[in-house]
Design brief:
Helix content is 39%, strand content 17%. By secondary structure, it is of the alpha/beta class. It folds into two domains: 7-164, Rossmann fold; 170-308, Nitrogenase molybdenum iron protein domain (Rossmann fold, 3-Layer(aba) Sandwich). The protein starts with 11 loop residues before the first strand and ends with a helix. Strands 8, 9, 10, 11, 12 and 13 form a six-stranded mixed β-sheet that branches. The chain has 13 helices and 13 strands. The chain has helices spanning 37-43, 65-74, 90-95, 110-117, 134-145, 148-167, 195-201, 209-214, 245-251, 255-258, 261-265, 274-278, 285-308; strands at 12-16, 19-23, 30-32, 50-52, 80-82, 100-102, 122-123, 176-183, 186-190, 206-207, 222-225, 237-242, 268-272. Pfam families: Peripla_BP_2. It comes from Devosia yakushimensis. It is found in: Cell envelope. Belongs to the bacterial solute-binding protein 8 family. Its main location: other.
Length: 309
């Protein structure tokens, strides 16, 4: 239940990619779908009745560690964890009798949105799928819950937490970075639209000009670069994400990787571990408290190595 939702905040109408949705009264049974929407709901003091199974970083129960901590503290009836399916499990969602479905960070299609809206008022994403920042998701969820002031305060508090953490590392602001991974026989470069890259630029890092120059500008979050031209990805530091150390170690043995100036300097920021990666891919107000200190430490060590030579 949404305790303390002020009556004057309803009805509220929220715009999104598929039109607009009006919420007539404070919702009491919320289902989330996508990534991180439940984080914002829980951070604002509400326990959803249904959340998606998160196979990435969620372990056997599909619940990520920062969510487990909040749910344990909240007590009461835990949310139903919906099946790990490619599309929303409409029957299971309907069985929960929600009065609001939040998919503010998701990639639901228009047909899926229509089916979900037949169950309950549904909030889809704005702009491009999976592109909203954690601040935008928090703001949207706050409005939907009738808690806009609480959402603004949460954003401010989390922003201060991030600023305080970054301030510990004076080499970080102004550092140029390029995010990549080894995928499907090529270098997958994260473009400016990627939520993780947006997050880092919001902290004062600078997306390397080489990313802009190499990008096909096709509206996607990622583009491929052949191994032979990996060295055209110039930057102060390189940033990558790996679930396990072994594949990263193997990647670093390759001659064209060893020859990268950033690698030679030790200016590779590699975040390793599924839960660690999930906490910032993309982040939420909850996951940042859990995972950001390690993330910024990894980045700072690479930035210091880049500036030391």
């Amino acid at each position: 239940m949404v305790a303390g939702a002020a009556a004057q905040h309803f009805p509220v109408t929220l715009e999104h990619v598929y039109g607009s949705t009006t919420i007539e009264a404070a919702p009491k049974r919320i289902v989330t779908w996508g990534w991180g929407n439940e984080d914002a709901v829980l951070a604002l003091g509400v326990v959803p009745v249904g959340i998606p199974f998160q196979s990435y970083g969620g372990g056997e129960d599909g619940i990520q560690p920062w969510l487990e901590e909040v749910l344990a503290a909240a007590g009461g009836e835990p949310p139903t964890v919906l099946p790990n399916t490619g599309e929303p499990p409409f029957e299971q969602i309907a069985a929960l009798e929600p009065d609001l479905i939040i998919a503010a960070f998701s990639g639901i299609t228009q047909d899926q949105y229509a089916l979900l809206s037949g169950i309950a008022p549904t909030i889809a994403y704005s702009g491009d799928a999976y592109s909203a920042t954690w601040q935008e998701v928090t703001t949207t969820v706050g409005a939907a819950l009738g808690k806009p002031d609480e959402a603004a305060a949460l954003i401010a508090e989390t922003g201060q937490f991030l600023a305080d953490e970054v301030a510990k590392y004076p080499d970080v602001p102004g550092t140029t970075f390029a995010g990549f991974n080894d995928f499907d026989g090529a270098i997958a470069v994260y473009d400016a639209l990627d939520a993780r890259m947006k997050f880092l630029t919001g902290l004062g890092l600078v997306l390397a000009p080489s990313v802009e120059e190499l990008s096909p500008h096709d509206g996607k979050f990622i583009f491929s670069l052949s191994y032979e031209v990996f060295d055209t990805l110039t930057s102060d530091i390189l940033l990558t994400y790996y679930e396990d150390q072994a594949p990263l170690d193997e990647f670093l043995t390759r001659p064209y990787v060893k020859a990268m100036p950033q690698i030679e300097k030790g200016a590779l920021a590699a975040l390793v571990g599924t839960e660690n990666v999930a906490a910032v891919s993309p982040p939420s107000a909850l996951s940042l408290r859990w995972g950001f200190p390690q993330y910024i430490d990894v980045i700072a060590k690479a930035a210091s190595a880049a500036k030391a030579q």
